[in-house]
Amino acid sequence: MALIVQKYGGTSVGSLPRIHHVVDKILKTRAEGHQVVVVVSAMSGETDRLVALAQKLSITPNPREFDVLLSTGEQVAMALLSMALIDKGCPARSYTGAQVQIRTDSVHNKARILEVEGSKIQADLASGTVVVVAGFQGVDDLGNITTLGRGGSDTTAVALAAALQADECQIYTDVNGIYTADPRIVPYARQLSQVTCQEMIELASQGAKVMQIRAVEFAGRYNVPVRVLSTFKEGSGTLIIQSLHKDHSIVSGIAYNRDEAKFVLRGLSDLPGIAAQILNPLSDAHIEVDMLVQTPSINGATDLTFTVHKRDFNQVQELLENSSKTLKLDKLEGNDQIAKISLVGMGLRSHPKVASTMFHTLGVQGINIQLISTSEIKVSVVIDEEHLERGVCALHEAFQLGKEPKEVEIN
């Protein structure tokens, strides 16, 4: 008998017929002799509906009350799923994040899980009950409801799997697994049977929407086996593993992100601490800076370029304009019509030609590169958003990602 944590996304529980379909999958797992803990997202479209309601009342809703509102979406889904299980004769019990004591920090809308109390769940499992937990939410030390950000139900599931020492965490979604690229852009993209945790972290952080990055980080930190599967099609999905397979690709996949904005601060005084003066206010506002490039100093002046999430564009512009006099810069430029493309793969460490092939491929397509960022297993570029789909398709073809690794030759 194994302990399985299953997470079902919003499309998986988006209607009553789909909830009944999820019930059948849970009952099948239970019939195989396994204990089951289920994590659910809000029904598809529900979170967007709640966000729209809040924004009709306030342009900037109070963060605490916003979390209280958003958390209700998952509570509806967990209650309906539990009712459906009980109606089928299966003992089930639902819990909110606060009830099961998923303890977080106090950063509303972007909270991080600190600790999970598993005693209630373990007692229910021992009695043969299926436990259904609301994803995406927790509670801070003051008893305030918090939410974990978009995709936070993935993190809830992996955190529960870690705390309960589950045998596997299964992430059910509307895709069959992890692909070499987004199949909506590259129809011939290939499904991966496995991908390393390091690669999945990079893919998630660079824009792949299949799993939240914090969930993958949890899986890596606590060695949780995670499998990404389709709710609607049978298959083995993609297993996220800890170590490299001998037939692993040099480039495992391509991720992209349309939700990028770029700022350029021109003519900054090149003095010690100048970058901190710019970035500290952003950090205090919990705004994450992604790519960051500083040009060499010329006559004591330098340019600083960085990217942030597009949703933070207006706030960052306001913060920079407020501090522009203190910074004494020549010009502030903002652009929210950019996109990022990233190549990810463990093989990049030993194949330096990957970057040059990427740049050459984009150049042949007439796509100008605005920023470049590299790590041991990633090469990212920023380009104009209008060229995104053409760039992804060209790179997928250049690196032969539609073929199995053993069929690929790197010159």
Would you give an account of this structure?
- By secondary structure, this protein is of the alpha/beta class.
- Helix content is 35%, strand content 27%.
- The strands form 4 sheets. Strands 3-6-2-1-9-11-12-10 form an 8-stranded mixed sheet, with helices on both faces. The protein has a 6-stranded antiparallel sheet with strand order 14-15-13-16-18-17. It has a two-stranded antiparallel sheet with strand order 4-5.
- β14 and β15 (301-309) form a beta hairpin.
- The longest helix has 25 residues, at 63-87.
Short synopsis of the structure:
The chain has 411 residues and is an alpha/beta fold. It is 35% helix and 27% strand. The protein is built from 11 helices and 18 strands.
What order do the helices and strands come in, and which of them pair?
Elements (H helix, E strand, L loop, with lengths): L2 E6 L7 H16 L3 E6 L5 H12 L5 H25 L4 E4 L6 E3 L8 E4 L2 H8 L3 E5 L2 E3 L5 E3 L4 H13 L3 E6 L20 E3 H9 L7 H10 L3 E5 L7 E4 L11 E17 L4 H11 L4 E6 L6 E9 L3 H15 L3 E14 L8 H12 L6 E5 L2 E7 L3 H11 L13
Parallel strand pairs: 1-2, 1-9, 2-6, 3-6, 9-11, 10-12
Antiparallel strand pairs: 4-5, 7-8, 11-12, 13-15, 13-16, 14-15, 16-18, 17-18
Helix pairs in contact: 1-3, 2-3, 5-7, 6-7, 8-9, 10-11
Output the keywords.
411 residues; alpha/beta; Carbamate kinase; 2 domains; eight-stranded mixed β-sheet; 18 strands; 27% strand; globular
